[in-house]
């Protein structure tokens, strides 16, 4: 692996397959039937990943994942709604920021960064704050790598008649999600995470009957999910300039996803990556931040060593020179760093990364324990 094309151990952008990058070696017209059929087939495949055919539609959106989260919240929540945000990390905090900007009422359920959102706690929040109409739930909090129990939360929302918008950005494609009979009203993800495409587009999988009631509600023109969907239904085209190469890369990435065996196979490969990483790092003396029961297979947060010689930037540079890109921590209270397990990489790559980290720590003279 040359230093000019390192392995990204980051949760998007991530390492993509050669075929995915090659799919971007031609240009597409946004009016062209072939391109618009490609968009349609991508959306059909995305819908199938979550078993949403029939009842749900998939609306693609230009931009990074946050653009789609903002589009979903702005389009699906009425101005007089009130959104509960169970909050255990930076992506939950981002949802709160979006709601503040839009002037939408919200209540947060504050949790520790190692504390999953529990259905009982959400039920108690409904009792405390009867104005709550919606729940915005991050499925996999990428800040720590924490998996929230989406099925339980969806069931409690359905029982209480609350709408549920799930940010499944870093879980979609790798963690099982089944929309059939679920309490999930909308699911948001993006091209450049577990689907292993390149970054540049997100998508919202939403109940069609709900989306149909949301015309002219979005406070944003560019992020109006209903308008985007209605225009695409009418014309087959994207409403504004589409990210053509990103769509082509995602088409190829989805072909590879299906060939690999879909979500179960992708989840299993990431589980092997994650187990290899945790075993290797533990042998070096590093301690994961999360208990195994709540640790996802997507990204692992490790405690920083207590040695005063420790500086993440030094480790980053040394490991980068060996061909691997690490990720800084994103927790507010504890000094940590993160290693992603997703992308077109396997357990051999993880063993290589662990070896590079071990060598770097040795040459930097850092005591881990
Ligand atoms: C990546 C991610 C997002 C979107 O972040 P962008 O920087 O806009 O791509 C949102 N939520 C979660 C949980 C994520 O992992």
Automatic annotation (TrEMBL):
Q: Answer whether the UniProt record assigns the keyword Transferase to this protein.
A: yes
Residues annotated as binding substrate are 338
Q: Which Pfam families match?
A: Aminotran_5
Q: Describe its partners and assembly state.
A: Homodimer.
Which family does the record assign? Belongs to the class-V pyridoxal-phosphate-dependent aminotransferase family. PhnW subfamily.
Which cofactors go with this protein? Answer: pyridoxal 5'-phosphate
Q: Please give the function described in this protein's UniProt entry.
A: Involved in phosphonate degradation.
Q: Which organism is it from?
A: Trinickia dinghuensis
N6-(pyridoxal phosphate)lysine is found on 193
Q: Which PANTHER family match?
A: 2-AMINOETHYLPHOSPHONATE--PYRUVATE TRANSAMINASE
Q: Which domain of life is it from?
A: Bacteria
Protein name according to UniProt:
2-aminoethylphosphonate--pyruvate transaminase
The record, for NCBIfam families, names: PhnW-AepZ, PRK13479.1, transamin_PhnW
Question: Its catalytic activity?
Answer: (2-aminoethyl)phosphonate + pyruvate = phosphonoacetaldehyde + L-alanine
Q: What is its EC number?
A: 2.6.1.37
GO BP annotation list: organic phosphonate catabolic process
